[in-house]
TrEMBL record:
InterPro entries in the record: Beta-barrel_TonB_sf, CarboxyPept-like_regulatory, OMP_b-brl_3, Plug_dom, Plug_dom_sf
Transmembrane segments: none
Broad class of the protein's primary localization: membrane
Organism: Patiriisocius marinus
Annotated segments matching region Disordered: 802-821
Name by which UniProt lists this protein: TonB-dependent receptor
All copies of domain Outer membrane protein beta-barrel, residue ranges: 381-798
Length: 821
């Protein structure tokens, strides 16, 4: 991968030099020629030609076209000419004297067996690169994500877990900040993960796991940052791919990406449509301890029938104003339409464990939404050493409308229809972003950086619950639950950081200042005679967030790193909306307007070592968080019309949360036909705090592990197996049992490697279920929940003018995926 990265950087540098020289009146010589593959005499497209002077400095360069031809302009003089291509031996012509236009002899490049082996293997598996403040995982050719979503792909990244609800966690901590191309984005769903379930995994080029973020990044996210880099081709010409898939339970989709790049502009687009049926199920057994409860045992069985239809497109154009300046405009649009049905069968038992009531409750929900985003990026490079200025402007909008019709009837001891409910929730979110970053190298190894970012968000949620007083009667607005909640979050941030390298020691130190304003306003109808509502809030927080990252190189392939950072976790709209919303008649969620941000300080000590075909990454980490959020369940003291106690879930600030853990990852590629990787994460967290006179302190140890094996079989067939295991865990009230999941995938290349047929089975054993037991002073709850049942997916991918992530080109030329991003 280092070879590839170097080539990318070199290619960009050469293009820049070539354009710069092209505008100079001193150029009067053209050097031309042709590069062929030695074994087959096939032309090598995108091979690199580098012209250096006698002092060893690069003067100019170029790349070959589809026929292997190149033309390079240079001033007359004596030069060294180098010919390079990924996976091939470099060829050098020493001391070439050019006084006039010259056509050099045809150059034949031979495969470099060792280099080619490295390129092929590492390009087709997840590979890690370590930087001062992050780890970079190139997703590579992961068969299990064929036809999958970005959310599915993230579940294969070390240190990252995606639970059965789709919640994303880093090292077991769900307070992770998700960025798209380094910025907050509507594609990430304004902090929700719903949009990531709709974006095809093929859109990802790489994922940056930032556990010790530098001052350049948002201070949001106590667990760290996941930065998803989307694909954008950097090679010249027209290229792209299209993928179709069909699966069971009923699902189908089509997605494509296309890229057109010239010396002046780059146009790129990814578009996809998905149709997906995702059935799930759950069951709950609630035992109430109060002897006065008429039916102390309640058993619920739920069936979830979810049908989603989603369209998304991302279109961008990058225009090169000069060889040093470019401007990029992108637009993202997503349209979704979901129809969900939840069937809830409830059995209530009396104190003698005899069935007293059997109730059927159905909820039909529709969710229509659209998201769009416009962004503008400006980059000017003052030189080729990294001295640059970037500026970003971005606007995002998210409109969601949900409607739910809830019908209920008793079937035992008599057949009795119950009054129905109708819920409407409309949510509109707007976000503005302005950012500017300046980077200035100082000398050979030092670098100074400074910048500003402003984030301004507003979300308006209009929640209305109407109920029938009698069966068949009119729907009457429930004023105690219906409300309109407006939430604003405005953040101003400035930062500066400085890095340097002294021999084998490198450091990056920074300081970020953020000022946060959180405002909430509730419009609700007051019941006659009730006290005036006074639940609006306007809070302001200012804080300093220092960061420090160190690396010491023990050898060429071995280093240790140490990182420190301070982070913030701001409460979101749903967590502070004081009006309750309910998922069932007896279970409500209520926000807490008194929530304050949580702050965390984290330390990370890492070790990296490479032995030939083995790479080890490991780290030990510690985090101390104050005012940490915790969701607790409590009995409200109120009863449903059927006499069932109403349980409320509410988030609170607990005093402290300590987390310590260790992780290790292994990448092992013993042969071209076998690629193995695995990771293990062990952590312990301890919470101390009390609420309402109840001590919610707890201490728990848990772990998760994943492994992947990929085997290349004869006839261009690949086989991959992924295994994931999460150990048991618990918090103050709930014990979660372990989860095991196995995925299996096959693929075969066809059509001269331009096409690929894939088959994958997600959750082969149908075991990806969350099983938990909750014990409080008033009740116990034993539950099992499965968000999505086992699924089978068949896909077909066709690539045009794109190579299949290999160092060696196909006969018809084309780009190389490794240059993307």
């Amino acid at each position: 991968m280092r070879v590839i990265t170097t080539a990318i950087f070199l290619l960009c540098s050469i293009l820049s030099f070539g354009q710069e020289r092209g505008s100079s009146p001193s150029i009067d010589i053209t050097i031309s020629g042709k590069i062929l593959e030695k074994e087959t005499n096939a032309p090598l497209e995108y091979a690199t030609v580098v012209i250096t002077n006698t002092a060893g400095s690069i003067v100019t360069g170029g790349i070959t076209d589809a026929t292997g031809q190149y033309n390079v302009e240079v001033s007359s003089g004596t030069y060294v000419v180098s010919y390079e291509f990924i996976g091939f031996e470099t060829k050098v012509l020493e001391a070439q004297k050019f006084q006039k236009n010259t056509t050099l002899p045809v150059q034949y490049l031979a495969e470099d067996a060792q280099s080619l082996d490295e390129v092929v293997i590492r390009a087709e598996t997840t590979e890690v690169q370590v930087r001062l403040d992050k780890k970079i995982y190139n997703i590579g050719k992961d068969l299990t994500t064929s036809g999958a979503t970005v959310s599915d792909a993230l579940s294969n990244v070390p240190a990252v877990t995606v639970d059965v609800d789709g919640a994303i966690a880093l090292r077991g901590n769900e307070n992770v900040r998700i960025l798209i191309n380094g910025k907050p984005s509507a594609i990430a769903g304004f902090g929700s993960t719903d949009a990531l379930r709709q974006l095809p995994a093929e859109a990802i080029e790489r994922v940056e796991v930032i556990t010790s973020p530098s001052a350049r990044y948002d201070a949001e996210g106590t667990a760290g940052i996941l930065n998803i880099i989307l694909r954008k081709e950097k090679t010249l010409g027209l290229n792209g791919s299209i993928q179709t898939n069909i699966g069971y339970p009923n699902s189908a989709g089509i997605s494509g990406n296309i890229n057109l790049r010239t010396n002046k502009f780059n146009i790129f687009n990814t578009t996809g449509y998905r149709y997906r049926d995702a059935p799930g199920n759950a069951n709950f057994t609630n035992q109430y301890k109060d002897a006065s409860v008429i039916n102390p045992l309640v058993i619920e069985d739920r069936e979830y029938l979810r049908l989603s239809r989603n369209f998304n497109t991302n279109l961008g154009i990058e225009y090169f104003l000069s060889d040093k300046t470019s401007i990029t405009a992108t637009g993202f649009f997503q349209l979704g339409n979901d129809d969900d049905e939840t069937i809830n069968e409830t059995r209530e038992f009396d104190a003698n464990n005899d069935l007293s009531t059997f109730r059927l409750r159905t909820e039909d929900e529709t969710d229509d939404g659209k998201r769009y985003q416009f962004s503008l990026n400006y980059v000017t490079k003052f030189d080729t050493n990294g001295h640059e200025l970037t500026a970003d402007l971005q606007y995002e909008n998210d409109d969601q409308e949900e409607t739910s019709f809830i019908g209920e009837k008793n079937t035992f001891p008599n057949n009795l229809e119950l009054p129905a409910e109708f819920i409407t929730s409309e949510e509109t979110q707007n976000e503005y972003l302005a950012q500017i970053d300046y980077v200035r190298p100082i000398g050979e190894n030092a670098q100074f950086e400074a910048g500003y970012r402003g984030n301004f968000k507003e979300s308006i949620t209009d929640y209305e619950l109407t109920e029938q007083a009698i069966v068949g009667g009119a729907f009457i607005r429930n004023d105690s639950l219906s409300n309109e909640f407006t939430y604003n979050e405005n953040v101003h941030a400035v930062y500066t950081q400085y890095g340097n390298k002294f021999g084998k020691f490198s450091f990056l130190a920074g300081l970020r200042f953020e000022n946060t304003q959180l405002k909430g306003k509730v419009d609700a109808i007051q019941a006659a005679g009730s006290e005036e509502l006074n639940i609006d809030f306007d809070k302001n927080y200012a804080g300093l967030f220092p960061t420090l990252n160190l690396i010491y190189e023990l050898g060429e392939s071995e280093n240790i790193s140490l990182g420190y950072n301070r982070r913030i976790n701001r409460p979101r709209g749903r967590f502070i909306n004081p009006f309750p919303s309910r998922s069932s008649e007896a279970n409500v969620f209520q926000g807490n307007p008194n929530l304050d941000p949580a702050y965390a300080s984290a330390f990370d000590l890492g070790y990296l070592r490479r032995w030939g075909k083995v790479t080890l990454t490991s780290s030990i980490y510690y985090q101390y968080e104050t005012d940490a959020f915790e969701r607790i369940q409590e009995d409200t003291g109120e009863l449903t019309p059927n006499g069932i106690p109403i349980i409320r879930t509410i988030p609170i600030n607990l005093s402290t949360n300590k987390r310590i853990g260790a992780e290790a990852g292994i990448l092992y590629n013993p042969n071209k036909w076998l690629r193995l990787n695995g990771s293990f994460n062990f952590f312990q967290f301890e919470t101390e705090g009390a609420f309402g006179g109840v001590d919610y302190g707890t201490k728990n140890t848990s772990y998760f592990a994943r492994g992947s094996a990929k085997v290349s079989l004869p006839y261009k067939i690949d086989w991959q197996t992924n295994v994931f295991y999460r150990g048991p865990s618990n918090n103050a009230q709930t014990e979660n049992k372990s989860i095991t999941s196995v995925s299996l995938a096959f693929s075969k290349d066809i059509m001269s490697d331009n096409g690929t047929i894939g088959l994958n089975v997600s959750d082969l054993l149908n075991s990806r279920k969350r099983r938990s037991f909750t014990d409080t002073t008033t009740f116990t709850s034993d539950s099992e929940f499965q968000w999505r049942e086992r699924s089978i997916n068949l896909s077909f991918t066709y690539r045009f003018n794109e190579k299949k992530k290999r160092g060696r080109p196909s006969q018809n030329g084309g780009g190389d995926d490794e240059f993307e991003g």
